[in-house]
Amino acid sequence: MTGTALVSAIIQILVSGIVGVAEGIGTGISTLAQDIFFVTVEGVTTLSTMGTLIVAFAAISLALGLCRWVLNFLTSLGARDR
Length: 82
Description:
about 10% strand, 2 domains
């Protein structure tokens, strides 16, 4: 076996191992997110209580952040650049 073939074989083994681990982690995270955010009752999938709370607090945070940004923008219109 030549040096090039040996290096190629080592790289192939390493990449296949990394791909397997990444697929396992991705599947686990996907399953975890679905279990946290979605509930299926009698064939109907809806957002869980935890998911609803997260969406509500994210909306409040976004609204407050945008209000702050607009307020800072409007109050700085007459200010000098320093």
